[in-house]
């Protein structure tokens, strides 16, 4: 009986959160930015196996995934996606932070497939 009550409670909370998010999204102004494939940089030098962080003033991001253990494939896919995006952004000159363009530096943080 307790399990059914918990399940119903979780479902109600999820519906409330989803409803409030949809209201917030409806009230928010629409984004003017859109993906344009023509603006994408030349990706011929991208190699996730040999990732080299840019020098100088960077935004440092840790990619916390299981890079070893039974879930290592998930970590490899996460690293692949993160380096692809960071390489493209870095080739475009970086991102604007506090009025300056900064490039993105990525670092692997191995969770070793352990939840703790």
């Amino acid at each position: 009986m307790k399990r059914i009550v918990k399940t119903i409670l979780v479902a109600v909370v999820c519906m409330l959160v989803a409803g409030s998010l949809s209201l917030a999204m409806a009230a928010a102004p629409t984004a003017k930015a859109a993906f344009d494939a023509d603006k994408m940089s030349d990706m011929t030098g991208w190699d996730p196996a040999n990732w080299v962080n840019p020098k100088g003033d960077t935004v440092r991001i840790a990619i916390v995934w299981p890079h070893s253990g039974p879930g290592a494939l998930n970590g490899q896919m996460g690293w692949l996606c993160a380096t692809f995006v960071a390489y493209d952004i870095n080739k475009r000159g970086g991102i604007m932070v506090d009025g300056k363009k900064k490039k993105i530096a990525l670092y692997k943080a191995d969770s070793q497939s352990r939840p703790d």
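The chain is about 40% helix and 20% strand. The CA atoms of residues 22 and 28 lie 10 Å apart.
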